[in-house]
Amino acid sequence: MDTIYLTDGTGSLELARVLDERCDRCMAGSRAAKPVNKDPIITVPAITLEGDANGAPHGDGSSYAKKFSGKYSHRVIRGGVGHNLPQEAPEAFAQAVIDVDGF
């Protein structure tokens, strides 16, 4: 089973870990079950985004940069942008998708 990790710096990796643990319990009796890496290194190109008005607890972008081994960029989106970047800053979000495709 593949796991997709998405993060905007606000704990999405932790949510993915919780979901992986639930999946592990569901598959515990299956011969196909294999251990899930709880702290993966993300090898694909990635851009993480953070709104300057994000009120959710999170670390500075440099605190999780070591989780990425592929080309990586962290962007702070300014202008009172909170946690919901696709809705609050659609242009910056779309540009990040376009840019990471070119990494």
Topology:
Layout: H1 12-26, E1 46-51, E2 72-77, H2 85-88, H3 90-101
Descriptive labels:
globular; single chain; 103 residues; two-stranded parallel sheet; alpha+beta; 3 helices
Give the mean pLDDT: 76
Distance between the amino and carboxyl termini? 26 Å
Largest sheet: 2 strands, parallel
Low-confidence stretches: 1-5, 11-16
Number of helices: 3
H/E element sequence? HEEHH
Query: Radius of gyration, rounded?
Result: 16 Å
Number of strands: 2
How big a fraction of the residues is strand? 5-15%
Strand order of the largest sheet: 1-2
The tally of domains stands at 1
Helix- and strand-based class? alpha+beta
How is this structure best described in words?
The chain has helices at 12-26, 85-88, 90-101; strands spanning 46-51, 72-77. It is an alpha+beta fold. It has one domain (12-101). The chain has a two-stranded parallel ribbon. It is globular and about 40 Å long.
Short characterization:
The chain is α+β, with helices and mostly antiparallel strands. 30% of the residues lie in helices and 12% in strands.
